[in-house]
Amino acid sequence: MLLHRSLLRVPAPPLLALLFFLALTTSSAEAQERRILLVGDSWVDQAFAAGAFDIALQNEGLGRYSSEGAVTAIGGTTAAQWATAPFLALIDSELAAYPTIDIVHLSVGGNDFLGAPPGTDLVALTLQILADIDAIVAHIHGIDPSIKVVIANYDYVPASLNTEQAVITQAMIDQAATTPNAFALNYMGVLHHAFGYPGEFAAGATPLPGGYPGYVPLQGGDPAFPGHLDFFDDAIHPSDPSYVRLAEHAVDEFYGQFLDPPPVPAMGGEALGVLALALCGAGAPRLRTSRRRRSGRS
Q1: What is the domain count for the chain?
Q2: CA proximity to 245, closest of 279, 198, 285, 208
Q3: Tell me, what's the pLDDT at 261?
Q4: What is the 3-state secondary structure (H, E, C) of the chain?
Q5: For the segment 120-155, what is each residue's pLDDT rounded down to a tens digit?
Q6: pTM of the prediction?
Q7: How far is CA 107 from the centre of its chain?
Q8: Top-confidence residue, 31 or 227
Q9: Among 114, 258, 266, 293, whose Cα sits 20 to 30 Å from the Cα of 33?
Q10: What is the mean pLDDT of the chain?
């Protein structure tokens, strides 16, 4: 194929620089590995649209990994819907399409709560939400039990639902603790800590919410205050910068370790010698006992 004459007139260094830049950007895009599947309601739908998780990964030095949510992040959906076959099939299709995904970030339950009729018993509603979440997690682990499912709650919203959120969050934590490769992600108070509350307290003046495994304090920030509208687009949904901060919290709490487990420290000859002596001293009595048992002697 012949080059256009106008290209031939471009001086070599700028043309080479352009080609080099294009090669770098193409290589970088191809190198990104999808590892996190966003599943659920508007809190992941809007976060995905804002690129919040990918920005957070980049900010945390993990830009070689990316998230996916084009099919499975659907605003307005409920835990009850995601526990049904048509919605579970969406998860199936995305896990099949992206076999490198080994983390599912699940955000459900908020619309079940908001859509419940007035006077609904909070305990009964919570139990139903938990049952639906359990069905979703079990389905994912039926595909691959090694997938880590992280069940996210919600930060304080301007609609002032702090008490109800705390009840549901504690129940989520308790349930996740009984399920292998399921984890509860606690967002309550992240935005208070990150941005403060104008006219009341400054950024960093209140604690982050407690994380895995103890979750102390359960409610970070200041539970006496709802979410502030300066950091939300409406009474329920955070602004794009807030979604990024929440995603950074998720990376700090779980995804950084899941994506890049800390390496086992290399041991030099002296350290190996000390370890060998320690193991010999600790293991010799057990080995002798084991032999006696296998030979039939007490």
Answers
A1: 1
A2: 208
A3: 86
A4: CCCCHHHHHCCHHHHHHHHHHHHHHHHHHHHCEEEEEEEECHHHHHHHHCCHHHHHHHHCCCCCEEEECCCCECCCCCHHHHCCHHHHHHHHHHHHHCCCCCEEEEECCHHHHHCCCCCCCHHHHHHHHHHHHHHHHHHHHHHCCCCEEEEECCCCCCCCCHHHHHHHHHHHHHHHCCCCCEEEECCCCHHHHHHCECCCECCCCCCCCCCCCCCCCCCCCCCCCCCCHHHECCCCCECHHHHHHHHHHHHHHHHHHHHCCCCCCCCCHHHHHHHHHHHHHHHHHHHHHHHHHHCCCC
A5: 999 999 999 999 999 999 999 999 999 999 999 999
A6: 0.80
A7: 10
A8: 227
A9: 266
A10: 85
Q: What is the pLDDT of residue 262?
A: 79
- Identify whether 181 is part of a domain: yes
**Inside any domain, residue 294:** no
**Which residues lie closer than 8 Å to 90 by C-beta, 6 or more apart?**
71, 72
Kindly state whether residue 7 falls inside one of the protein's structural domains: no
Q: Choose among 226, 216, 237, 243: nearest CA to 163.
A: 226
Q: What is the CATH number of the domain that holds 243?
A: 3.40.50.1110
| Domain span at 151 | 32-259
Strand order in the sheet with 65-68: 65-68, 33-40, 103-107, 148-152, 182-185
Q: How far is CA 11 from the centre of its chain?
A: 48
